[in-house]
């Protein structure tokens, strides 16, 4: 869908980094959010210009009409949550354009009038079962450095409910292995503290014994020779390690965020109040925390067994 005439695009002033509203907007986000929102901007660029080149979009000439057409296109193609995330990226770039004095307040106000896409879809993701967790930890060979590291990774993701970007940011100084207290550097430069259970802390302590002392990241890469590499793991490497463990353990596909959903569901199922779970998970709203709750899935399965068809044999 091409919303901007090529003549407009070709006549646009080429923006350098210091005056590029898209880059200014992305720079205001936490590192974990930048990847997702850069993808949202590529979608916007494709809709507006027919190309996915974010840097080639003349954001200063985007109007209310453009934004409205974008909303319609997104509503027809994406789930409401995805469409609204992309619209949020558009509003963010337009605010940045206003800050750079590329548009005036009236144009910003008009673009901001574009309403969110309404509706809802079934929430994705799942919670891991206890048998699956046991299988995953059993797939971590404690005799190998990689196995000890992978077990510590699972412990932080599940017992702490950390995001991928957060788990790779954990440093030695952030963790007190005597109490299980962990300082988490979350989204938007927000920090929070949480406590890991005794078993999770013991798993992490076993990895640290292999890792050795010294400051720096808790989680380090391990090469094919099972030698520890002294640099920080990437969140992409975390995703790859989980895929390896999933195949090795023979469990269904899951992601780091599914570990986070499992953390929320387990806490709520065991009587932890919603406000505490929200604070521990680092959610800005309890509504967000409630979306991570997968207890209802188990309740629905139980209901299906209790209210089934009568015997037809």
Q: What would you report as the Rg, rounded to the nearest angstrom?
A: 23 Å
Strand order of the largest sheet: 1-2-3
Mean pLDDT: 86
pLDDT under 50 segments (min length 5)? 5-15
The shape, in one word, is: globular
What kind of assembly state do the chains in view correspond to?
single chain
Would you tell me the structural class of the helices and strands? mainly alpha
Secondary-structure element series: HHHHHHHHHEEEHHHHHH
**How many angstroms separate the termini?**
56 Å
What would CATH call the class of the largest domain?
Mainly Alpha
Number of domains: 2
Total number of helices: 15
Largest sheet data: 3 strands, antiparallel
Verbal overview:
The structure is a single chain. The model is unreliable at 5-15 (pLDDT under 50). The chain folds into two domains: 6-112, Orthogonal Bundle (DNA polymerase, domain 1); 130-304, hpI Integrase, Chain A (Orthogonal Bundle). The radius of gyration is 23 Å and the shape is globular. Helix 2 (21-27) packs across helix 5 (80-99), helix 3 (31-49) crosses helix 5 (80-99) and helix 4 runs antiparallel to helix 5. The protein has a three-stranded antiparallel beta sheet with strand order 1-2-3, with no helix packed on it. It is 55% helix and 4% strand. It is mainly alpha-helical. It starts with 5 loop residues before the first helix and ends in a 7-residue tail after the last helix.
How would you summarize the topology of this molecule?
Layout: H1 6-11, H2 21-27, H3 31-49, H4 64-77, H5 80-99, H6 105-112, H7 130-138, H8 145-160, H9 164-167, E1 175-176, E2 181-185, E3 191-195, H10 198-211, H11 235-249, H12 256-269, H13 274-281, H14 286-291, H15 295-306
Antiparallel strand pairs: 1-2, 2-3
């Amino acid at each position: 869908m091409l919303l901007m005439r090529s003549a407009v695009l070709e006549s646009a002033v080429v923006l350098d980094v210091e005056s590029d509203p898209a880059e200014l907007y992305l720079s205001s986000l936490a590192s974990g959010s930048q990847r997702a929102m850069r993808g949202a901007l590529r979608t916007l660029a494709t809709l507006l210009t027919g190309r996915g080149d974010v840097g080639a979009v003349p954001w200063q000439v985007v109007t209310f009409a453009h934004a409205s057409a974008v909303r319609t296109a997104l509503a027809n193609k994406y789930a409401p949550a995805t469409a609204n995330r992309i619209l949020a990226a558009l509003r963010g770039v337009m605010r940045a354009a206003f800050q750079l004095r590329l548009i005036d307040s009236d144009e910003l106000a008009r673009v901001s009038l574009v309403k969110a896409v309404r509706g809802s879809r079934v929430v994705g993701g799942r919670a891991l079962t206890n048998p699956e967790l046991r299988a995953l930890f059993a797939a971590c060979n404690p005799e190998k450095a990689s196995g000890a590291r992978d077990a510590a990774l699972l412990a932080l993701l599940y017992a702490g409910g950390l995001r991928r970007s957060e788990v790779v940011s954990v440093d030695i100084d952030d963790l007190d292995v005597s109490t299980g207290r962990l300082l988490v550097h979350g989204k938007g430069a927000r920090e929070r503290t949480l406590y890991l259970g005794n078993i999770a802390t013991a798993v992490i302590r076993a990895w640290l014994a292999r890792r050795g002392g010294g400051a720096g990241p808790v989680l380090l890469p391990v090469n094919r020779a099972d030698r520890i590499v002294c640099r920080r793991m990437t969140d992409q490497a975390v995703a790859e390690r989980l895929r390896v463990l999933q195949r090795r353990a023979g469990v269904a596909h899951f992601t780091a965020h599914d570990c986070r959903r499992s953390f929320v569901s387990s806490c709520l199922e065991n009587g932890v109040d919603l406000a505490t779970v929200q604070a521990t998970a680092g959610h800005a709203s309890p509504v967000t925390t409630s979306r991570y709750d997968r207890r209802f899935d188990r309740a629905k399965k139980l209901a299906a067994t209790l209210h089934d068809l009568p015997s037809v044999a």
